[in-house]
Amino acid sequence: MTExxxxxxxxxxxxxxQKMIERFNRTILHxxxxxxxxxxxVDPIQGDKLTPRYEGPFxxxxxxxxxxxxxxxxxxxxxxxxxxxxxxxxVLDDLDDDDIYEVEYITAHRTAEAGGG
Length: 117
Hints:
Elements: H1 2-27, E1 38-42, E2 54-63, E3 69-72, E4 88-90
Antiparallel strand pairs: 1-2, 1-4, 2-3
């Protein structure tokens, strides 16, 4: 009985554990930010719905061995705490002038259908 039951229980436990690991790894965001990148950080003490959710922009100084990021502000001073990758959002601050157009007037316009709003 011990040659049949215990190996089956062990195999089932390993299978369940592997499924739990795979499910957990699917939920994790693997964000990596290069040094010098501009990021916004989540505000840990957001007051109410009308206050901004993110603060910044900050510049990434480096990533420590634990995976947290060390940031500096606009005056090149290091922030007092470290941020996990899930607390940061990349900021794209370089806009191309080629994608901006100036329009004199609109010749044809789609009209809203009656009752469609």
